[in-house]
Design a protein that fits this description.
heterodimer, A: 331 residues, alpha/beta, Rossmann fold, eight-stranded mixed β-sheet, four-stranded antiparallel β-sheet, 12 helices, B: 324 residues, 11 helices, 12 strands, 33% helix, globular
Amino acid sequence: MAPLLEVRNLRTEFVTRSGVVRAVDGVSWDVQEGETVALVGESGCGKSVSALSILRLVAGPAGRIVAGQVLFKGRDLLALTEEEMRHIRGREIAMVFQEPMTSLNPVLTIGRQLTEGLEIHLGMSPADTRRRAGELLAMVGIPDSERRLAQYPHQFSGGMRQRMMIAMALACQPSLVLADEPTTALDVTIQAQILELMKDLSRRLGVAMLIITHNLGVVARYADRVNVMYAGRIIERGTARELYANPRHPYTVGLLGSVPRLDEPRRERLAPIEGQPPDLTRLPPGCAFAPRCTFRVDRCLSDVPALRAVANDGHVAACWEAERVRKLAAR
Amino acid sequence: MTDVLLEVRDLVKHFTVGGGLFGGPRGVVRAVDGVSFSIRPGETLGLVGESGCGKTTTGRCILQLERPTSGQVIFEGRDLAGLDAGALRSLRRKIQVIFQDPYSSLNPRMTVGQIIAEPLAVHGIVPDARRRRERVHALLVRVGLLPQHADRYPHQLSGGQRQRVGIARAVAMEPALIICDEPVSALDVSIQAQIINLLEDLRSELGLTYLFIAHDLSVVRHISDRVAVMYLGKIVEITDRKSLYDDPKHPYTQALLAAVPIPDPELEQRRQRVVLGGEVPSPLNPPSGCVFHPRCPIAVDRCRREVPALREIRPGHRTACILA
């Protein structure tokens, strides 16, 4: 079966004073119908820009998509007109942002912001949209919807605003939701509420999800498959189970090793990844992770490794030394 | 020499919120509402809780950046609240702070060298300019930077490097106590571990004592000897690290620990998840009795009426729950 979304060799660049930044540097990945896929990585690795590129929301003129295809239900979104694209955004593919306060309109009521999409995309009557908006709030666990619909975003708590964002995203029954760090700004108990809600709704409504996050714990609980990004490229991909049990890229190994874990005995010392993330305007030749890598060999400094199969189940890694990583990590 | 470096006794900080009739006060936010704990020399006390629980305000009261409404902050046997400006200033040198956001806490118009050198000059620690420069270079190397970073501006550094500058500035004063207020939460995962290791190295080399304020329970477990959990201005549980994480007694501590996702899909599949309902109530109008009772999965009628005392349930383990 063809995937719901297939990104092929996507490349997005930003022109800055210090040079051209290849924020997304030829990445390919896909999302199957009803599946939850994660894009994981640290600041500046290109995970958010990947999501924005799918909806063609990269801010020009500095930023532009320079190559690739974004096939959604078989159609290339990058080839659509702006008018056609408007029917995709919010209707077919919706987005949940990290900071609900800055992505909601502060001078419109919650009700208005929920009904707008219903009117535009589904052509519902005002009475119907009102009823549907009430249902949506109830669905995301906001009680007393009559009163809530008349309120403004500042009258909602952070957790409630994120529930509201999820209601907005699901309003038109999209087949894909892109969630960019949906719980990063929230407290840990609220984070758990929101993640359980998203998981429950995505299962019940059969919506596919792309979760963008830096939190490896969130990924472990909620994602079926995981793409790890570093310096604009995907460096490892696999099912969540396989990737955590058997990481094959030194960066993935390093990420997993650098976080203290509550389920394990306390270690005397953490094992950080030494050095700094690279400057994207001055990427080294060869593997971008090589300067920080403890598995580095000469070849890493000159040749860029491509994603290669390292195990079954579509587990791929972009590392010349993936076999050595397996042996050492297994010890 | 006492065996307590810092003692906080019944600390209260209330903020008055304006906007009432005729511009009068409308309400009182009980940011910190009767907090007591002590820290021994060389110890790291973790202070955890969610936003608005009062952990940062507690830190600011210790630093005397906020004047407490009532209560005492006793440092090396002296109550800071009773000191005049001069005495406070010389004592401040011994209590330093590392902030969460190293960008907004470093002056963007000063070079890294100037940022670290300024307090050395102000406090007369190294009066000679040439020797001050040498000291700055030594400090930069000590925190994992290079001497040439002294000529850079904060915006030319990465987040992790900026936090190293903040740490260098704090240890330059040769303090006894450092208040670390979310020192790694703005940093990327791979950099967090670098900074935590650095803080641990400095603690043992320089004999430092930390109050480590954070919301990340895994990080707090790693670095702390003892841990206090705050909720709505109060400490609900305080004990040594092992007891808190292996055998938490307060339902809020239990819920917090259960809410942390663990980076292991197989384990997460099997894990029973108890999601705490509701949200933290407004500190403008805290609930009656135990402030946690509206969200507590095991609350009984008595919890609505009775404010639970922070009582010792076994040596060194105190919790504010009548059912514990």
